[in-house]
Structures are given as C-alpha cells and as structure tokens.
Specification:
Helix content is 31%, strand content 20%. By secondary structure, the chain is of the alpha/beta class. It folds into 4 domains: 75 residues, 2-Layer Sandwich (Alpha-Beta Plaits), CATH 3.30.70; 232 residues, 3-Layer(aba) Sandwich (Rossmann fold); 204 residues, Rossmann fold (3-Layer(aba) Sandwich), CATH 3.40.50; 46 residues, no CATH class. A hairpin with a 7-residue loop joins strand 2 and strand 3. Helix 5 runs antiparallel to helix 6, helix 8 runs parallel beside helix 10 and helix 18 runs parallel beside helix 19. Bound molecules: iron/sulfur cluster. Iron/sulfur cluster binds next to helix 2 and helix 3.
Length: 603
C-alpha cells in the first residue's frame, strides 16, 4: 500500500510566468474536478486525495516545481513534521545518545536542518498537522515507548541545554565584529578556552577580528565557541568545511573529547572519511530533496557508511540510489593513461613578499587525473593558477600548449541573469552535450536551478554551476580547485565519478585539489603532495603514483589507512591500534589488503 504526496516548491513555482500548463493538462481537472488549483493566484495547490499520480504536471511544469511521489503507507505514522500543504515533510527523528557521537548524513534539502531544529527544541514538531497547534505534550505522547522520549521531556521542561555550531559560519562576522578572544571568553562556560584554542591551533587567531578571519579560521572559531558552552547536547552542523585534513583531525579530536566526557553529540557532515573517524553511529537521511526526508535507523559507523556507499539499507530493505559508489576500481572499457603528454613543467618557483613556493618538475599524460593534497596555505592554488596560465611563475616554465579550463576555489557570480542565461551565454550548445547532461547536469539536478538568478545561488549551487561550466569546455586540461566544497555527500560522488569518466572518455587530463580524501581516492590516478610551513613556504613533489602519494601524505599527517573489505573504501586506523602500529612500522600508511580489515579493531 502506498500513500501519495504532492510537493510544490514555493521558490520554483512561478504561476505568473508560465502558462498554467499543470492546471490545463491535469486529467482530473479535465474531468471537471479541482485537483490542481491556484488559490490567491500565487502557487499551485494540488489535492493529494484527488491526484491519480499520472505525473503529467511534473512533465509540463517549465520550472520543475512539482514532485508527485508514492510513499509506503506505513510511513504515515512516522511523520514528524510537515511545513504546510504540498510542502516538505520529515519522517522519523534522529537519535542521540549520552557519551556517543552520532553522525547524520544525507543530501542538502532532505531535512537535516529541520531535524536539528527539532532536536535542539527550536521547532515543535506538528506530526503532519500543519493547521493545528503543535505542542511538546502531544509529541511526547507520540514518542511513548521510544528511545528519544526522555530527550524531549527534558526539552519540554527546559532542562536540556543545547549548543549548536551552525552551518553558515560565514554569517558569524555579521553578529560579532570584535576580536576572536573576546567571543571565546564570553562563550567559555566550561573554562576550557586555553585547551580548545591549543587543540584547534587558534592561538594566532585570538587577536584578529572575526570579519578578518579566513574560512578555515572562522569554522574552527565556530567549533570552539560551540564546544566551550556547557551543554548536554552538542550539535555540529558541517564542522569540516573550509578546513584541511590536519585541521579536520583537530576538530575530530575535540568532538570526540566532548562525547568522552559523557555528553551527547550529533554531527552533520558530508566528508565521509571524517564522519567515519569521528562517529560511533551513523544515521542516513534519504528521500527526495525539497519533498521529503526519512531518517534511517541507527547503524554502527562502518555499517552505516558502507550502506550509504551501497545506496541500500539492508535492515530496512530500502534502496535509495540505483548504483553503489566504488573505490580503487576502474570501470570496464574506460581508457587509461596514454603516452601523450598534455602538460609539462620544469621546476617552478613563485615568490611573494611573505610566501615562497617551489614545485618539482613534472608532466601530465592524457587520461590522467592528478589529485593534489596538502594543508591549507601551502600554495596549491598558486600551483594550479600557474599551470592554468592565470599566474606567471617567478622561475621555471610551464609548457602547456594545451588549453586549460580552470575552476577557482572561491566562487562569485557577477553575472547579472539567470543560470539558464549564464549557460547560454558562456556555453551555448555545449550545455546540451549528452555526455555532460548524463554525467553532471541530470544527476546534479541543474534543471531546477535554471530559472534562478546567479546572484541568488547558495555556495553549493554555485559550485555545481561552476563545475558544469568547467567540464563543458572543449579543452585539454581541466583544473578544479576544491570541487567538493559546499556539496552534499551524494553530489560529491556524482562529481568525482563524472570527472573520472569524462576525462578518460575524452582522453584529456585533469588536476583536482581537494581536502575530502574519499573524493581524492575516487578521482585520482596520480598525486601531487604539498608540504611546508603554511603561509610561509610550500613545496610540491613531482606527480607520484597514488600509492606513493597517499603514503607520503599520510605519513606527514600521522595516520594510517586500510581498505574496507566490502566496499574497498579507505578507512582511518584507530591511532595506536595494532594495525596502525604495524603499518607505521612497515611504512605502509595506505593501501593494505582489504582482507586485513577483518582482524582490525573497531574504530
Ligand atoms: Fe493532476 Fe496528479 Fe496527474 Fe499532476 S500527477 S497532472 S496533479 S493527476
């Protein structure tokens, strides 16, 4: 048995601009009943009772504003919140546990923020009764016999203290313009400021004013501020964004410490290597972005992340993706590295007043994707700009007869128009290339963005547009600086797969800088490793094999990785564990046999 839901996305439905095709073409309307109407001449209203699920309105809506979906009948009793008629609904609520870190992972627009607001007591769930008055009493009664009842009883009684690290850290300087030190002193209810500042390497940041901080500093200040509050539940919404691998490790250490002190912690995160490392349990939110989200059961981290990669939840018998994400395997029929050298450079130097970069000579063959790893502020972007001809080296030469398409790290859009107009102006017919459509435009749901103005896009939406605009180019080298930033976990997989497939199918090359090691693992054939003193000097190796490169990089980070026996994905070994010590003794920081996982201790 199924129940039908109809969702009209408010910001997409433009009834004044379209010809009201949905109303005209709906067969129920044609037969004289009012299935789709336009009350108040604003947005379409669809009767879920009258709708027969033919899907015609979805096809005729020029703005992709309508979703008609069939959900299982049993889910009806799991509905936690619905914002209004024909709007987003959340089924089930995440679980938090004392002394444990629970990870929450899923697409953007799938209900993670709604779930966090409910857990924090900022939103009283209405159980789907969006016209009635939602009360904690009613919700607590609904939770009778369930694990989270006590949590919400304490919320209702005002006894549960919650500390939230918000996702949008870039908004913090609007609320606090003074020095970082003053902010952290004000938040320091636990009297742990010195310890937290040390762990997150924020000493140099204390005397800077918030509006002057880099993205990475702002993120760590936000994590520090949230962790200094004295709370029972700590919610960290995307704590790894903007940070490099070293900084992500420091954040993990801090979050684990909070849980180990007996507090409940929930982390929303898209970097699954980080999620795997920091959490005890994982919950997946799946569904349809903008339409509905379902919170899965609680899984041990390894099982949950493997299910996420599989796209299948065996315990719930739910498939939420039609393919599994794989690691370390080339798809059959894909071309591999060719003999043809598409880019070559001598040893390169670049000097600024206070920073110096030196890169060893190298070349990139056709069909190769060169991953670039290293801490922030070591000159990775400068290297990419030199390769792309955007910056001139101080010494050495880049022999790139080849054309380079460059996607910068920081995205801004001065284009005054819609996404559709942007693609028509910059790409023309390249936008409709079937390879681009199949690999990026359709899976990234770019069609939903076409009517939006470029200046109004979020960071993740702008990232998708920039990746499509780069990968559509007829070029020899695709240079992408942090393509995973701001993307959700599913879109990261899509982009990594698309870059790999498109570059190999076209026999071109790509250089990809990223801090998400799972993305780097999926996308790269070879690696360039950066080291040095951040902000002062950086050094880059020649292109290494992926094994050599990862080994070199992880040795510097001080972590060892093994491969998961089921998915082949790289997993961090628990520091100090037998496997960690054995691998370090052998100098094998990466790529041990997947079979060893079976005897590995849980981490
Ligand atoms: Fe009408 Fe429902 Fe068909 Fe849409 S899916 S056209 S609302 S019957």
């Amino acid at each position: 048995m199924v129940h039908r839901i109809a969702v009209v996305e408010e910001d997409l439905c433009q009834s004044k601009k379209c010809g009201l095709e949905c109303i005209k073409e709906c067969p129920v309307n044609i037969n004289g009943q009012e299935c789709i109407t336009l009350p108040g001449s604003k947005i379409a209203l669809i009767s879920e009772e009258l709708c027969i699920g033919c899907g015609i309105c979805i096809k005729v809506c020029p703005f992709d504003a309508i979703d008609i979906l069939n959900l299982s009948e049993e889910l009806k009793s799991d509905k936690i919140h619905q914002y209004g008629v024909n709007s987003f609904r959340l089924f089930r609520i995440p679980t938090v546990r004392k002394g444990q870190v629970v990870g929450l992972v899923g697409r953007n627009g799938i209900g993670k923020s709604t779930a966090l607001k409910i857990l924090a007591g900022q939103l009283v769930p209405n159980l789907g009764d969006y016209e009635g008055t939602a009360t904690w009493d009613r919700f607590i009664q609904y939770l009778s016999g369930r694990e989270m009842k006590e949590h919400f009883e304490r919320i209702a009684d005002g006894e549960l203290r919650v500390s939230l690290k918000p996702q949008a850290v870039y908004k913090l300087p609007e609320a606090w313009t003074k020095e970082t030190r003053l902010l952290l002193q004000q938040m320091d209810e636990r009297k742990k400021m010195d310890e937290v500042v040390e762990t997150l390497n924020l000493k140099e940041t204390l005397d800077k004013k918030l509006p002057d901080l880099s993205g990475g500093e702002l993120q760590r200040v936000a994590v520090a501020a949230a962790s200094l509050k004295d709370a029972d539940l700590y919610l960290f919404d995307e704590p790894s964004s903007y940070n490099d691998v070293f900084q992500r490790l420091a954040v993990s250490k801090l979050i684990r410490g909070i849980a180990e002190s007996g507090k409940s912690v929930l982390v929303v995160e898209h970097d699954i290597a980080f999620l795997d490392y920091v959490t005890d349990y994982v919950q997946i939110i799946y569904g349809e972005p903008g339409a509905y989200g379902i919170v899965s059961g609680l899984y041990a981290s390894r099982t949950g992340i493997n299910s996420l990669l599989d796209g299948y939840l065996p315990q719930e018998n739910v498939r939420f993706r039609d393919h599994a994400v794989t690691f370390g395997q080339r798809a059959a029929g894909e071309t591999v590295e060719s003999e043809e050298v598409v880019a070559k450079y001598t040893a390169l130097g670049k000097s600024y007043k206070a920073f110096k970069l030196e890169a060893a000579a190298g070349e990139i063959n056709g069909g190769t994707i060169l991953g670039v790893v290293g801490a922030n502020a070591l000159g990775k972007t400068t290297f990419l700009k030199m390769l792309a001809g955007v910056e001139k080296p101080t010494s050495g030469t880049v022999h790139v007869d080849a054309k380079v398409a460059y996607k910068p790290q920081y995205l801004s859009s001065e284009f005054d128009g819609t996404v559709d107009e942007f693609f028509m102006t910059t790409l023309g017919s390249k936008y409709t290339d079937p390879v681009l459509q199949d690999n990026l435009v359709v899976p990234l749901r770019l069609e939903k963005l076409l009517a939006r103005r470029m200046g109004e896009l979020s960071g993740g939406e702008l990232q998708k547009v920039a990746i499509v605009a780069t990968m559509a180019q007829d070029t020899d080298v695709y240079a992408l600086d942090e393509p995973s930033a701001f993307l959700d976990v599913e879109d990261r997989f899509v982009v990594a797969r698309a870059i790999n497939r498109m570059v190999k199918a076209r026999g071109k090359a790509a250089v990809v800088i990223d801090h998400d090691l799972q993305v780097v693992d999926i996308v790269s054939d070879r690696l360039l490793v950066f080291s040095g003193d951040p902000g002062v000097s950086g050094e880059a190796t020649s292109p290494l094999t992926k094994e050599e490169g990862m080994n070199e990089f992880l040795r510097r980070v001080g972590l060892t990785y093994r491969r998961d026996v089921n998915t082949g994905r790289p997993r961090v070994n628990k520091p100090g564990s037998k496997l960690d010590r054995d691998q370090k003794d052998r100098g094998t920081y990466y790529y041990v046999s997947a079979q060893r996982e079976e005897s590995a201790p849980a981490d």
